UniProtKB/TrEMBL annotation:
Residues 1-19 have a biased composition (Polar residues). Residues 49-61 have a biased composition (Basic and acidic residues). Keywords: Coiled coil. Residues 1-66 are annotated as: Disordered. Residues 78-107 form a coiled coil. This is Uncharacterized protein.
Amino acid sequence: MEKKASQPTEDGQQSNSATKAVAEVLTKHTKKPMFLKHVGVQHVHVRSSRSDREAEQEGQKRGNAKLRVLVQTPNNKLHELEEARIRQEEERTKQEEENGKKQAELEAKLDFLLNQIHAR
């Protein structure tokens, strides 16, 4: 507060009074400076209005939405890749089963032919 009182005003002509310095500090650091009302000093620093706060919250929501999109995009791709891997694994398993059946059929035919040869 002493620094505020010793600094020149914006127009550079005279220094701030102690009351104005106290008013500036109180309005910056307290929500409702009751002291200023009792002393009869109006707010020096106007706090942000409701519309400013709403605009700021809207900006934060948009920022949060952008972040969600940035996070969801890799998650979606990861999910798609996982589904593709599962499909490939299912196809591989199915192909192995088919190959096993074909091999069993060929072995049965080969056994049949070998038995025919040995029987002669």
